[in-house]
């Protein structure tokens, strides 16, 4: 059933994102044309086009957040929630669907923005530079060994977990806000800010508790072998992944529990 929900959700949101992605690429090509021509009589259109290009990138980032909030709230906490929760689907499956699609569009938005910038900046010199940077990165990873690839993998996992944790914190805050019959938005914003405060407090407590140990550990690595430094980086990234995963899991189970036990569709 998750596959059917994902198909429906992707189709519904694609109508929003795909035209924006196409528009971004079009303006990247238009700006590239203006740069290539570099004529004085095209200065004003060039400025306007460049401004719109930046505005579309910002708009895509904002729209990704807006759609994340709007789709979850509309499908599960508004009148549509009556239909959604009559489906033979477990509550957590609805959450899984929303967060997977939100992650997908967040990744695609970043990749599309990067591609548009690459299209805008692409020339013989920049392509050679990009190719050289890529070769240098591969050589560095090969020099470091398997540990380098593990650091790269852990970094990617950390970014994914970080995005999902933020998405789930938004879902949890919206669901808490829905508990109020009159001040849903205000309570939701307060809940989201409260989550941030709790995270900061926990981070501060952990950092102060292990500050001395962490400082001594990294000081000892200053003159250590490269292999030891790489291993230390792996441990740090693994700790961050676990840390972000714990918060994400907490938001996930809180949201699931609230939807199952405290759902208010009035």
UniProtKB/TrEMBL annotation:
Residue intervals passing through the bilayer: 12-35, 47-69, 100-122, 149-173, 185-210, 230-254
Keywords, sorted A to Z: Membrane, Transmembrane, Transmembrane helix
Record has Transmembrane helix as a keyword: yes
Official protein name in the record: ABC-2 family transporter protein
